[in-house]
Amino acid sequence: MMATAWTSAIFAVFTWWFFTGAILLIVRRSDAGDTTGHGKSVVFTVPLLALGIAGLVVSSTVLTVSTIYVAFLSTLLVWGWIELAFLAGIITGPERRACPAGLKGWVRFARAFNTVAYHELLLLGAVLIIGAITAAGVNQFGFWAFVILFTARISAKLNLFYGVPRINTEFVPVPLQHLKSYFHQGSITAAFPIGVTFLSVLTAYCGYNLLNAGTVPTTVGYALLTALATLAALEHWLMVIPLPDAKLWRWMLPAPTTTGKSNEL
Question: Structural domain boundaries of the chain?
Answer without folding.
Answer: 2-245
